[in-house]
Design a protein that fits this description.
The complex is a heterodimer.
Chain A: H1 3-10, H2 12-20, H3 23-45, H4 54-70, H5 72-85, E1 89-93, H6 96-109, E2 114-117, H7 121-125, H8 128-134, E3 138-141, H9 144-151, H10 168-178, H11 191-208, E4 211-214, E5 218-220, E6 225-230, H12 234-240, E7 244-250, E8 254-255, H13 258-272, E9 280-284, E10 298-304, H14 308-311, H15 327-330, H16 335-338, H17 349-360, H18 377-381, H19 388-401, H20 407-420, H21 423-441, E11 446-447, H22 454-459, E12 462-463, H23 470-479
Parallel strand pairs in A: 1-10, 2-3, 2-4, 4-7, 5-8, 7-10
Antiparallel strand pairs in A: 5-6, 6-9, 11-12
Helix pairs in contact in A: 3-13, 4-13, 17-19
Chain B: E1 2-5, H1 9-14, H2 16-27, E2 32-34, H3 44-49, H4 52-66, E3 71-74, H5 77-90, H6 97-107, E4 108-110, H7 111-119, E5 127-135, H8 138-144, H9 148-154, E6 158-162, H10 178-181, H11 183-200, E7 204-207, H12 210-222, E8 229-232, H13 233-238
Parallel strand pairs in B: 1-2, 1-3, 3-4, 5-6, 5-7, 7-8
Classes of the chains: A alpha/beta, B alpha/beta.
Chain lengths: 480, 243
């Protein structure tokens, strides 16, 4: 990860303030949240129509993922062998830099000047677009949200809705500029027309690009296929029109069988967009065969570690179950206050608060595991039952174990815990604190500015209801 | 039955009336209620901060002083969750303390779930003239599965009507140290909660965790809402004011 990226992660707290003051972002987020939550709720409720139960299904999904992770090397070997048997090439990348190097090499080998991309968060980990551009290859994002984000020179702020932070007016301004036409007033009714406009531009790119780059939602070991779950149809173009198709995905994405895929597909679209199935489900196996009307002449898988193997057998292995549905961020009160860019790296929301420290270094993202109310709305909706709050908690413990917390915080906690271990002294101190708070409230029942918790009173009062502690009043009452 | 009332450090310092209300409710069940003298804090702030050693020390202290009771009742889902769910895992590798932690965990109850599921007591339901909207606190709801209990109890209060707010299961943004470390983010979250409370058009917002309530009350007042009352469910159920 670049030095700039690192600095961004470190600055979560300041960045949060900036995001809270961004009126356009706040409007976009307020609009999106009920849509995400409502659609997922409907999708999960619809399981009952098929006689399925969410809790049962997610325990099955969790078992599939756990079972695979327990023998990950074996399933990857099987995948590699089967994929090669279909005519695909399988490459391995240790980190993001190696991904970029491999893709640029492939592009040079096949004389590629333009690459169309279907959304891949792993290519964000690798900062692949920068590497391609530097090598003189033009990367064109073709997922509508990614296309918008690329035009704006930004990164995705959500793993399945990359441009969720943008308002229609902002998108219109980008389109007018990029497509060389006058600015118009747009409402949500114009979204289909705007999508059509992007589609017309993108079609030319699909037809002229020599290489398609996509991610994969899953790798199916038994068939050597990549499974791709999309809604816009661009994924099909990217993976079938150009002569070379490169699939970049994490090593943890492999699952054993098509049967397992069917099970996980009951969970993924419903958790992501509330759909019982996405508009397109593609199983990409091998290269174009004789008699096929389309398909790439060359299919290359790049299977990426970038920190994943380190999580195997660690306290954080559960995180590798993640199927990237986005439900955790869609139900996160912190995410929907700030949007994804506040998190500073590729993955936002609760899953990002776990993955960013693990993939970029715990010391580089000290705030993230603390940027949680502990509400567990994420854990409750996770389709593979990842205990996200527990993983964030474990990261906070590790920060303590490695001496990464500020001395002031450690000292304050030590002093408080020491005091809490001495009930008589504790009573004496809390009595004084109650008097002090009451004095600050000065008969108004509230404190408006409190120097010991300035961030608290910046946004709200501190209600004060009594100048006496419970234990003080209780012992007085017992004596009478 | 010999009960311990664990009042929580927040109730002790910030709102003693909640402790007395809980005491009256528990005494009304006919049980012998004791307020163990040495109680201070369950240690959740240390645990949340990731300081395992301090959390372990305070957990052992609480286990020792609460071990001899038939049941421990806490007017807070958050602290009850700490004892029920966190203590056993915190001490899981300690051969001496693990069984004690588990024994205490199963005997520890959040107030409303104790009243409904354990004591099953009828009490002289008080009167509350007005409407209330109930905020489900995160730890109580998602940690302990408390949802129907407070509503069952509230509906027994004469004159009370329940007006559910939109998204009553959404976090209020308190999160303990979170609201102090990330105050501005917390304010944004509690603002959405206040919008929901205002939309419910109830006379009072009621909850089972003082942390959330202080956060909500503080924000409502700062927004200029001086009329919506913010009450702990124990205060509503015990009726009247006192002490």
């Amino acid at each position: 990860m670049s030095a700039v990226g690192r600095a961004q992660v470190m600055n979560f707290h300041d960045r949060a303030g900036e995001k809270l003051r961004n009126a356009g972002l706040q409007r976009a987020l307020r609009k999106a949240k009920p849509l995400f939550v409502g659609k997922r709720a409907k999708g999960i409720a619809s399981l009952a129509e098929d006689g399925l139960d969410f809790e049962m299904l997610r325990s099955t999904g969790k078992n599939i993922r756990n079972r695979t992770l327990a023998d990950l090397d074996v399933w990857l070997d099987i995948f590699e062998e089967r994929a090669k048997a279909t005519g695909a090439e399988v490459l391995w990348a240790r980190d993001g830099a190696e991904v970029s190097r491999l893709v640029v090499d492939i592009a040079h080998r096949y004389g590629v000047s333009k690459a169309v991309k279907s959304k891949s968060m792993l290519s964000e980990e690798a900062q692949l677009n920068d590497a391609l551009a530097a090598a003189g290859i033009r990367p064109v994002e073709t997922d509508l949200g990614e296309y918008i984000v690329q035009l704006a020179g930004e990164t995705p702020s959500h793993i399945i809705a990359p441009a969720v932070h943008k308002t229609i007016a902002e998108v219109e301004a980008l389109f007018a500029r990029e497509h060389g036409r006058p600015l118009e007033t747009r409402t949500s009714a114009d979204i289909p027309a705007m999508a059509q406009e992007a589609r017309a531009v993108l079609r030319q790119h699909f037809l002229s690009a020599e290489m398609g780059i996509s991610g994969a939602n899953f790798l199916i070991a038994e068939t050597g296929s990549a499974a791709l779950v999309t809604n816009e149809g661009n994924g099909r173009m990217v993976t079938t029109l150009p002569k070379v198709h490169v699939v970049i995905t994490g090593i943890e994405k492999v699952i054993p069988t098509l049967e397992d895929f069917a099970t996980l597909m009951r969970l993924l679209p419903r958790s992501a967009t509330g759909q019982s199935i996405s508009n397109y489900v593609s199983l990409l196996t091998g290269t174009r065969r004789e008699g096929d009307h389309d398909g790439p002449e060359k299919t290359i898988f790049i299977l990426v570690d970038n920190g994943r193997a380190n999580l195997l057998g660690s306290d954080y292995q559960d995180m590798l179950r993640c199927i990237r549905c986005g439900a955790c961020m869609n139900h996160c009160p912190v995410y929907f206050s700030l949007g994804g860019h506040a998190y500073g790296w590729v993955y936002p929301g609760p899953m990002g608060s776990v993955l960013t420290p693990l993939y970029t270094g715990i010391e580089n993202a000290l705030d993230l595991p603390h940027a949680t109310t502990g509400c567990n709305q994420c854990g409750a909706v996770c389709p593979v039952d990842i205990p996200l709050p527990a993983l964030m908690h474990r990261l906070r413990e590790e920060q303590n174990e490695r001496g990464l917390r500020p001395w002031s915080e450690r000292l304050a906690l030590q002093a408080w815990a020491w005091l809490a271990g001495k009930p008589r002294l504790y009573r004496w101190v809390t009595r004084r604190v109650a008097r002090y708070l009451d004095w600050l409230a000065d008969g108004s029942g509230r404190i408006r500015i409190f120097g010991l918790a300035p961030e608290w009173t910046a946004g709200r009062d501190l209600p004060v209801s009594s100048s006496r502690t419970f234990h003080e009043l209780y012992s007085a009452r017992k004596k009478t | 039955m010999r009960l311990a009332l664990y009042v929580t450090c927040l109730v002790d310092l910030m709102r003693p009336s909640v402790g007395f209300a809980a005491l009256r409710l528990l005494e009304a069940t006919g049980a012998e209620v004791v307020v163990p003298e040495g109680q201070t804090c369950c240690g959740q702030p240390a645990w949340s901060a990731g300081n395992r050693q301090l959390a372990v020390d305070l957990a052992k202290k609480a286990i020792a002083e609460l071990a001899s009771f038939d049941a421990v009742v806490i007017p807070s889902g958050s602290c009850a969750d700490q004892i029920r769910n966190v203590y056993p895992q915190l001490l899981a590798d300690d051969p001496l303390w693990a069984p004690r932690a588990r024994a205490l965990a199963v005997r520890t109850h959040e107030l409303t779930s104790f009243l409904v599921d354990v004591a099953k007591a009828e009490w002289g339901a008080p009167e509350f003239l007005g409407s209330v909207t109930y905020h489900d606190s995160c730890k109580g709801l998602r940690g302990l599965g408390i949802k129907r209990q407070p509503r069952e109890l509230l509906l027994k209060v004469r004159g009370l009507s329940l007006k559910e707010m939109p998204d009553c299961e959404e976090c209020c943004g308190f999160g303990g140290a979170f609201s102090v470390k990330f105050g501005a983010v917390s304010t944004q979250i509690v603002d959405r909660k206040c919008d929901a409370i205002t939309a419910a058009k109830a006379d009072a917002v009621v909850g089972g965790d003082l942390g959330c309530l202080i956060n909500i009350e503080g924000r409502l007042r700062r927004r200029g809402d001086e009329t919506t009352r913010v009450l702990h469910i124990a205060e509503v159920l015990a009726g009247g004011s006192e002490d």
